[in-house]
């Protein structure tokens, strides 16, 4: 009973908003960038990447922060092995030459203590372009299972894959790709 009271008290104290610059490490078991793309106009195909790592710094009190995320492109998962192999090949991601996709941002936008957007640079297939992520969910607090302070968010954007030289079959397979990211990170 004492442990439960201590855990609840710690959770209440830690659930207040981020007050100073805090550093976080991506929880790769709860972070999965994914995508949606129109396939010949018939259906929306989806996939995700299973290996993500990185660091996040949040300073909500001063409206600042940074994101430095790396995604292992070979970790793509679509539910279809043949498609995954094709996406890893030269026609698309060419993971032998470009094994990592990165997103780095140093402009985070807050409304109060809630992160609402991030502006940064997406590097994919050897090309870097500015990208704006909209955050539609953001929450920080004590994770009562792991007993550590955690922040989580859902973010999204749309990119044109042709701008990153991943243009095989455009326009039959859509140029616009919706990118969705659910992320959790634990305080260092």
UniProtKB/TrEMBL annotation:
The entry's keywords: Signal
Keyword Zinc-finger carried by entry: no
Protein name in UniProt: Lipid/polyisoprenoid-binding YceI-like domain-containing protein
SUPFAM superfamilies attached to this UniProt entry: YceI-like
Organism in which the protein naturally occurs: Methylomonas lenta
Cross-referenced SMART domains: YceI
PANTHER family: PERIPLASMIC PROTEIN (PTHR34406:SF2), PROTEIN YCEI (PTHR34406)
Lipid/polyisoprenoid-binding YceI-like domain span: 23-186
Coiled coil: none
Signal sequence bounds: 1-20
InterPro entries membership: Lipid/polyisoprenoid-bd_YceI, TTHA0802/YceI-like_sf
